[in-house]
Each structure stands twice: as structure tokens, then as C-alpha cells.
Amino acid sequence: MAYSEKIPGNQESMEIISKMIQSARKDIEDNSFYYLLWGWLVLIACVLEYVLLKSGSQFHFIGWVILMPAGAIATSVYGYKQEKRQKVKSFIDDVIKYILIAFLVVLVSVLAFMSKLGLMTYPLILMIYGMWLFTSGGIIQFKPLVIGGIINWVLAVAAAFVSFENQIILLALAVLSGYIAPGYMLKARFRQNAGRIK
Amino acid sequence: MKFKSLDPLLHSQLRLAIMSILISVKSAEFGYIREKTEASSGNISVQLSKLAEAGYIEIEKSFRDNYPLTTCSITAKGVTAFEDYVNSIQSYLSSGN
Questions:
Q1: Rounded to whole angstroms, how far apart are CA atoms A96 and B92?
Q2: Which residue from A28, A191, A24, A46 is spatially nearest to A126, judged by alpha carbons?
Q3: What pLDDT does residue A198 have?
Q4: Residue B32 is nearest to which of A12, A21, A88, comparing CB atoms?
Q5: Which residue did the predictor score with more confidence, A23 or A155?
Q6: Do A17 and B16 touch (CB under 8 A)?
Q7: Which of A32, A57, B17, B68 makes an SS bond possible with A187, Cβ 3.0 to 4.6 Å?
Q8: Does the pLDDT of residue A110 top 70, yes or no?
Q9: How many CB atoms lie within 10 A of CB A117?
Q10: Distance between CA atoms of A167 and A119, rounded to whole angstroms?
């Protein structure tokens, strides 16, 4: 219905307000890219490290050194482009952006102190992942991400008590349950919502 | 029971729709408002100017990829006016008027 300058009735006023607010709130951005990007990057880094470790390579950590900065760059570029093409900006987008920046700063800092943190590096990384998943999932009201965050925290505690090799397996499990699976579910939800709006 | 009179600036289908969109978001582009309200560009421009003159919204004009871009956001005065309007409407409705 095209709106005009016509004076609405009281009931009609409430209907216009409710319809417009609901419509604007439905226009959430598809943020699944970030979860899928980080999920796949971490999973690849885990598999690579496990294989290199088993083959006795000294540079078993090489995947992290290359893939994590690449992920940070890809995130920044995608975020910039996404912001540019957005027709509407919500307060939720702002909150998510700041949480994502905080997540990246802490993640890169932990990785920089890897040599000092030793065996506690991966449990810490899992804690940070869990925090991002839990908070961002809560904000966009998407339960699979919240559950993924809790799984990451449980695996972080478990990782503190196992060997380095087993930590890698736990990390791979954490990204599968916390990033990749919820990431695809989020993508599907967005497509479903977009279809409904059209 | 005494009723507050409705703000005439908000008591119009299109201006109310625009304000309802802007109260839900941080900012919205002109094209987005046109898409949601399905009103003509000319009519939207006129209504946006009226709302901006009253200090209810802020209009930012810029360029994106060499094309003019108009972005609107609600002001604190606009939020108060919108809240007052909703309260008045609710009191009218609850009294059965």
C-alpha cells in the first residue's frame, strides 16, 4: 500500500506504526559470511597443523600464520563493502561491528603471545570464540550460535587438560559446532526471511 | 477525561510511516524509505523537508559512486514527538474514541 498525506484514523495510525517498525526490523543483514569464513579458516588450519605435526614438521603452525591474518583482511574488506551497500543501518549492526572488532583484537593478541602461552593458547582461543558466538548469537536472537558458544566454552575447559594434538581435534570440533553448522543455518534463515519479505 | 491533541505533523499516513521507519533504525537511505512506503519520490522529498524543518529528523546529503545519496535519521526531538504521538493515540483507542 502506498502511503500518502491522508490523515489516518486512530486504529490506522497504530497499524502503520506497527507495520513499518516490523518491516524495518526484518531487514537484518546476512552476517553468515563471518561465521563461515572463520569456521572454514580455523578448520583448515587445524587439519593442516594436525597433519604437519604427525609428519614431524617443524612448521606445523604455518597454517595459522597465513590463514588468520588473511581472515582478518577478508573480514575488514567484506565489512567495509557490506557497510557501503547497506541502505539502512541498525543499532544492532553497530553493536555487532564493535564486538567483532574486539574479537579480532583479542584473537590476534593471543596469537601473538602464543609462544608465551604455550599449551594454554588453544583453550584461550576457544574461550574467545565462545564469547563472540554467545554474544552475537544472543543479539541477533539466533539460538544455534548461542549453543555453539556454550559448546566452545565446554571444549575450552576440556582442552586445558589434554595434549596439544588432542587440543587440535577439540578446536576442529568447536568450529564445526560453533561456526560452520550455525553459519549455514543462519544463511538459510536469511534466505527464508528475504523470500518472505519479497 | 482531557485528551492531548495529536501532533499534526505526525498525523499523516506518509509522515507517520517515515517516522516509524526511522525510529526503528539508526539511519535509512532515501531509496529504502521509498521502497517501504511505496510513495513517490517527490512526495517523500516534501514530507522529509517538513519533518526536517520541525527538527524531527536530520537529512544528510552526500555522494556514493558519483550519485547523490540522501540519508535520514531521527533526532531526540523526533523521538519525543513520536512517543507523545503514540501515547496520545493509545489513550484515544483505550477510551474507545
A1: 39
A2: A46
A3: 43
A4: A88
A5: A155
A6: yes
A7: A32
A8: yes
A9: 15
A10: 9
